[in-house]
Amino acid sequence: MDESRGQRLLRRVTAGIPPREEPVTHVADLPGRAARYAEWPSWADPAVVAALRDCGVSAPWAHQAEAASHAYEGRHVVISTGTASGKSLAYQLPVLSRLAAGEKAKASVRGFRVAEPSARGEAPVVTALYLSPTKALGADQLRAVSSLDVPGVRAASFDGDTPMAERDWVRAHANWVFTNPDMLHRGILSAHGRWATFFRRLSCVVVDECHSYRGVFGSHVALLLRRLRRVAEHYGASPVFVLASATTASPASFASRLTGVPCVAVTEDASPRGARTVALWEPPLLEELTGENGAPVRRSAGAETSRILADLVLEGARSLAFIRSRRGAELAALGARRILSEVDPVLSETVAAYRSGYLPEERRALEAALLSGRLLGVATTNALELGVDIAGLDAVVLAGYPGTLASFWQQAGRAGRSGDSALVVFVARDDPLDTYLVHHPEALLSRPVETAVLDPANPYVLAPQLACAVAELPLTLPELEVFGGSAAQEVLAELTEQKLVRRRSSGWYWTSRDRPHAEVGIRGTGGEQIAVVESDSGRMLGTVDPGSACFAVHPGAVYLHQGSSYVVDELELDQGLALVHAENPDWTTTPREIVDISVLSIQEKQDYGGVSVCLGEVAVTSQVVGYLRRRPSGEVLDHTPLDLPEQSLRTRAVWYTVSAALLGPAVAAAGRARASSAASAGCGVADDSGDSAGSDGSGDSDVSDGEVGTGGHRVGTESAGPVGTGEETQANGRGPVREGGRTPGGAGLVPARVPGALHAAEHAAIGLLPLFATCDRWDIGGVSTAWHEDTGEATVFVHDGHPGGAGFAERGYAAIVPWLAATREAIVSCECPTGCPSCVQSPKCGNGNEPLDKAGAVAVLGTVLGALRQHGT
Ligand SMILES: Nc1ncnc2c1ncn2[C@@H]1O[C@H](COP(=O)(O)OP(=O)(O)OP(=O)(O)O)[C@@H](O)[C@H]1O
What we know:
With 873 residues, the protein is an alpha/beta fold. It has four domains: 5-31 and 273-446, Rossmann fold (3-Layer(aba) Sandwich); 46-266, Rossmann fold, CATH 3.40.50; 459-510; 595-624 and 646-673 and 745-872, no CATH class. It is built from 27 helices and 29 strands. Strands 1-9-16-15-12-14-13 form a seven-stranded mixed sheet, with helices on both faces. A seven-stranded parallel sheet has the order 4-5-3-6-7-2-8, with helices on both faces. Strands 24, 25, 26, 27, 28 and 29 form a six-stranded antiparallel sheet that branches. The relative contact order is 0.09. Mean pLDDT is 82; it is low at 109-124 and 675-744. Adenosine-5'-triphosphate is lined by residues 57, 60-61, 64, 83-89, 387, 389. Residues 57, 60-61, 64, 83-89, 387, 389 line the site of adenosine-5'-triphosphate.
């Protein structure tokens, strides 16, 4: 069979790599597909069809026509198809047709029935609202609509950048308003009276890139859309919702949860797609470098990506590399340029970086240069992921898993639309999730894209949102259903008690003259924001959630803003201020936290013979105690202690307990001694916004709660059997676990090994939860302890990092078996001997990644999974 272009590119980028450093763990060839067209719908306005034809769209693809017809006929619809599958046209066609028809009707106002013309017939008859998660995407979409130049359509943006002078014009005259959730919340719903005419005519709401509304932000947006519907209804309108999403599992149920109205889904993608060769790539371990506690370090994904990008450019392939941080994108571009300049200085000019913070004109110029081939290699953050019309590239390199499968396919989808085969390379970073993925291609390439998690019933989100709703319009009892029924009633009772709202027989009323909107940030859950200010100039660079301030802007932290780098000099929590100066050091910082956790209530509990799994509410107390400085290579420079106050967080967690008997006979014996002496409490030493390994479980701990790194908890040297041998392998979440050499049904651990085993199991579990819960590992934390005073047993907690939770713990609870099976597999797959960042080390462990017992973690997880499978799930 002939070699395809994608395969040839892969052969070129791997040429010359010695066999012992072979980085490619898997190659898949994904076939291409031809386009399927439909007729223009009979209802489509001829002027709109003509404008689209002029832009090169001769006919709609089948999925576009189907989604557009649902919307035009008044059915709420979500279109969930691949990258560059023309989702924009699916909403442009019905919205523009409605707007154009309304304008024509208005033009003949005397002769025809018109919905409700203004006295002089000037106001639009129908209006539409477009919402995007970012201003940049909104601006791109507005530009696309404006360029169609359909008669009677007055599209305008209304966001933080809209000059005051223009705002009145937009309110009075625009019939399609492009905005974002933040502005809808603060600037439109809070002053809906000024938008009365617009709301009265509101016929359609477009929610673009809706899969990005997840977690706390997603929960806020879900309630915001309910507020929007209520206000529209107040003015007599009931708009149809059209949502566009990357491909995702159960789009209809997600869209219905987000909007609160039943949505139909269009998922069959009829756009053409080129074939792609996908390679999974694990950078080799470095011999000359070691990381924390002497652990081996892999070549960094960024350095590897620079090299691959340079090779691709040498092949003349138009390529895009996605890097997670802006700084990383700059460094990857620089690295590729440096390599190319040694070959041919002219070639180094064909590589550039691209990230947010660039002006729209700069972005347009970069996009055009890449499409024309003047630029061959671009290293970018996910700024290029959403809504940018770049497709049909020869190659895409992803440096690290972008957090969700939706993002993975969105980024990978930039390659290969031109009909020719293209190359996608996924380069694993040094962490458990990436390691798992490169060794389990089916988890990356064959799984349906996860549905986004959100929880509009979170009281920490519901309370401020209900306050805004009541302030907008008094809330009546029947309306409560829209906001979550009894959960909303409980929250309202609290607001009434705080005298923020007043209860009357007709409903709930806002008591103050001031509106709550300005106080409610919809992208997080914390009260007053901390302002990040440049000392020299007094310029405010941005804000940070108070809950994460100690973490993100502690003294000494490197803070990145729009690609520029700053170092924090002071953090004044009382004054809500972090003072920084511009500096571009050659290292990054990672904070270290210690954490303690207590159980407030148990919502769900399942027992599996010595193992129990719970979901419930917890109180997490955390304290940032220092930070590490690391070089981009992963090398740790030093650790600096910090003295910062404790933070507390009420949130939700999933946890499992393991009985002493299952951990091992020696642990059971020591546990009896502990019970009789009642000697000590479990302590929490943390990581990832807190995970912890605590007392050694032997009953002789004198560690006070929350102390870091107190001695005596070393990983035992005896081994529970080799890690990563064939006997340990198991199917992903299925099939029996064979625990070679251990007591059947038990982990066979001695007490001294329990803390390290649990700690390692917990780190890896935090790393793998994002595979099941659409969250980032930084959105969650964990605590592990050989004995926890609330459970009375060895316990591993994984908790949401936001007040009230964002639904991640629930997902962990629901997916406990596949999640823990994947966790175990990730550890087993890693070839390092005793633990490294690819498996059980965590980048922000409060206890300096001590103790960690990799083999013990495999034993504990095997035991837990054995119990879960034997006794239930
Ligand atoms: N029916 C069609 N025939 C030909 N080209 C089309 C058709 N529909 C859309 N296009 C073109 O396909 C490209 C991608 O469209 P669009 O940006 O709307 O896709 P998308 O699915 O929204 O992309 P993203 O995944 O980036 O959100 C655009 O250049 C658009 O003009």
